[in-house]
Amino acid sequence: MKTPLFHFRHVTKRFGDRVLLNIDEFVVNAGVCMLITGDNGAGKTTLLKIVSGLVKPDSAKVQVKDAVLSWSKARVKIQRNLVYLHQDPYMLDTTVERNIAYGLRLHKEPRAHLYDTVADALRWARLDHLAHRNARSLSGGEKQRVALTRARIVNPSVLALDEPTTNMDQQSRISTYQLIDALRNEGMAILVASHDQTGLTPIADHHTQLVGGKLVNVEPAFKRSRATKVTRFPG
Known about the structure:
alpha/beta; 4-stranded antiparallel sheet; 33% helix
């Protein structure tokens, strides 16, 4: 059985007279990838930001371990354990290497350990050839890989991704799918809000759809064992 990290109950959010979200429960489990789909305006991003502690819901209770907390009290614990990535990842105006090292520098990692960790992360993502390039000069797919690697290096329990493959060519999408799958295989909980069902459905352990403010489970068209999921770069 997967371990619940956060268990959200009775999540509601209104905009004016419109009830955007009215969700009975939403469970974030360790080592599980959940794909959240829905029409434009259905509330995917809002839900992801609520779960990430970035947008305050009108109401919500969050169970963290054995304690049931209000969203306001839970958000501190959430933000200590979760990294949220926007669909257009922000890149610092410096090298790829320094972008990836940013989180470790904030945590005051010893310099020798920092360089070794960043070098390993660059190899993991196959970004070592771009280490000294300015990150803002990269393609959209390369920036997303840098952002995923920068998130991985600080070892969060949960990674929340908002439309991670938007405006990418097919090869960039494949590289992004592989990194997401590799992170899930390392035990990280992954929440993905996306229109991209074709490439992300095989990675996801669960697929849920936002319809009329509610979450509806989508029965997968097929299931692949973890052993058959692609976690290596092609070639």
